[in-house]
Specification:
Length: 137
């Protein structure tokens, strides 16, 4: 069972979400920068703007939800079903919690994974085209 109080549970879940977002965002920015450097060398220096555009909305949203009162935070973070750790309350019935989970899924999971997939696909395509061009010469 969870050994600490609800405040520590909320902090633990918040940190898990925050560090997970930072990790996936780092991977997304890294793959996009690699794609820009390999496929579009003239735009390879744009990575600062790219990271600022994507990273800050996710973190600002998470900090905004953290800053709310304790009673509304209970709807977003809580014990896992087995009670040994805390995370996002996936089965919350409030509309705000459902929208938060949906926004996290779309903007902080689906979109980054799609960007990573597109970036590495473009890199592979560029390398393949370059290899064919070298073989013809």
């Amino acid at each position: 069972r969870w050994l600490f109080n609800h405040t520590v549970c909320t902090l633990y879940a918040f940190c898990g979400v925050l560090f997970g977002l930072c990790s996936l965002t780092s991977l997304t920015v890294l793959s996009t920068v690699c794609c820009l450097k390999v496929c579009y060398p003239a735009y390879g220096r744009c990575w600062d703007v790219l990271s600022d555009l994507y990273l800050h909305p996710s973190l600002i949203n998470n900090f905004f939800l953290w800053a709310r009162s304790t009673s509304s935070r209970k709807a977003f973070y809580g014990p896992e079903p087995y009670g040994t750790a805390c995370c996002i309350t996936w089965k919350s019935s409030s509309r705000e919690a459902t929208l938060y989970i949906l926004a996290l899924f779309i903007f902080c999971y689906l979109l980054p994974c799609l960007l990573i997939l597109i970036s590495y696909s473009l890199i592979l395509w560029t390398v393949r085209v370059s290899h064919r061009a070298l073989r013809q010469h």
